[in-house]
Design goal:
The protein is mainly α and 170 residues long. The protein contains 7 helices and no strands. The longest helix is centred in the C-terminal third of the chain and has 25 residues. The chain is globular, with a radius of gyration of 16 Å.
């Protein structure tokens, strides 16, 4: 059992790193456009963290990141990001525990999954509300995912460093 002070320190470091990545999104990525779309970093953050930290801790972190995103970003409905990110974290943790070892390849897989799942859920909500062209929406989600994935070169090493450096001997 890990001491509570260790857990508080570890998740404070994860939170600060995530805040730094939020700043990267706001200050840099929001100003990049490819075919009229900007990279959307937020869904990959809880997925990559969950691939390193596991099902319970990863999904709790994803829920917290989702709540913050729900407060900061427009979404299809209130609580959308909390639900979507928690779901992606659960799937990411299962992938890391059963299919791929946590690392860059696993980060690529869970990030692609998280971006596509979050986009797919946005499409589903839009479709159920009676609007939009499905083909165009799928194309937009695919392009958004492809232009976001290069951010893995920052996200995976940062979260791996935190995971490795904050490892406990307990």
């Amino acid at each position: 059992m890990m001491p509570k002070s260790y857990l508080v320190f570890k998740w404070t470091v994860y939170s600060l790193a995530t805040l730094l990545l939020f700043a990267l999104q706001y200050l840099v990525l929001d100003h990049i456009q490819v075919w009229g779309l900007t990279p959307f970093l937020y869904p990959m953050l809880p997925a990559v963290a969950a691939s390193f930290e596991g099902l319970r801790r990863g999904s709790t972190f994803a829920l917290a990141v989702g709540v913050v995103c729900d407060l900061l970003l427009p979404g299809p409905f209130e609580g959308f990001y909390a639900i979507a990110f928690t779901l992606t974290a659960l799937i990411a943790a299962l992938i890391a525990e059963n299919l791929l070892s946590p690392g860059f390849l696993c980060g690529l897989a869970v990030s692609a999954m998280s971006l596509l799942l979050t986009g797919g859920l946005r499409i589903l909500v839009q479709f159920l509300s009676g609007g939009g062209y499905l083909g165009l929406m799928f194309r937009m989600v695919l392009i958004e995912s492809l232009i976001t994935l290069p951010a893995l070169v920052v996200v995976v090493p940062l979260y791996r460093l935190i995971h490795d450096r904050c490892a406990s001997d307990y």
